[in-house]
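Just wondering, can you check both lines?
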Amino acid sequence: QVQLVESGGGLVQAGGSLRLSCAASGRTFRSYAMGWFRQAPGKERELVTAVGATGGSTYYRGSVKGRFTTSRDNAKNTLYLQMNSPKPEDPGVYYCAAAFDIRTIVNYAGADYWGEGTLVTVSS
């Protein structure tokens, strides 16, 4: 089992940058594929990005390609989301998620474990 705690959310100006972190407990972090989801008020949760267990494979939602970068440090049990040039459509609660198989995240927008989320607000 793994517990996930997000941090780094807050208010960011459109065109600025923000980095989210997700700290994972346990010694098996390196075994999990990881993902970042977000949910805006009144909208369904959506997948933003995913990364395989070794970091070798990544997936990005089309609207964030070229602006957001996901990475992981397995030695630190931490997942990151670098958000550059955020846009007005990017705000929401960002959730970190872990799955045994990246296909769970990418194909089914699901996960085996979820964090509590961190709020990102974008000002114009």
About this structure: The mean pLDDT is 96.
